[in-house]
Amino acid sequence: MNRKEMEEQVIQAYQRDEGMMILVFAQWCVNHGLDAQEIYRRAYPDQASNPLLAQMMENTVPKEEAEEIPDTTLLGVLSLFGNDDLAFVISEEMERLKKHRG
C-alpha cells in the first residue's frame, strides 16, 4: 500500500467514525425530544447547515425503538472529535432536562 492509499483509508475511516458520532448525537436528541439541527446551530451559529447531520437524522429510529444512550457516552464521543462547543450546548440541555425531571 502506498502513502496515498493509506491516507485515503485514514480519511475514509475518519469520515465513517464522524458519521457514527453524528448519529449518536442525533439519536440522543431524538431520545430526549430535542431538535438536533437547532442544538447544532446553537453550538455552531456561524456554520451553514450540516449535510451529514441531515443524512444521519434519516438513520435515527423513534425513541420507543431506540437503545438508551448514556449522557457520558455522548459527551465522550463528542470529545473524541473535538466538538467542545456542541458538548457544551449538550451539557446545558442535560442540566435543563434534569431540572424538568427532578
Q: What Rg, in angstroms, do the CA atoms define? A: 15 Å
Please give the count of helices: 5
Main beta sheet: none
N- to C-terminal separation?
56 Å
Mean pLDDT reading: 92
* N-to-C series of helices and strands: HHHHH
Q: Find the count of extended strands (DSSP E, 2+ residues).
A: 0
Beta-strand residue fraction: under 5%
The stretches of 5 or more residues where confidence is low (pLDDT under 50) are none
Helix content range: over 70%
Shape: elongated
Give the structural class.
Answer: mainly alpha
SSE arrangement:
Elements: H1 3-31, H2 36-43, H3 51-57, H4 71-80, H5 84-101
Helix pairs in contact: 1-3, 1-4, 2-5, 4-5
Keywords:
elongated; 102 residues; mainly alpha
Describe the structure in brief.
The protein has 102 residues and is an all-alpha fold.
Please give a structural write-up:
The mean pLDDT is 92. The chain contains 5 helices and no strands. Helices cover 71% and strands 0% of the residues. The protein has 102 residues and is mostly helical.
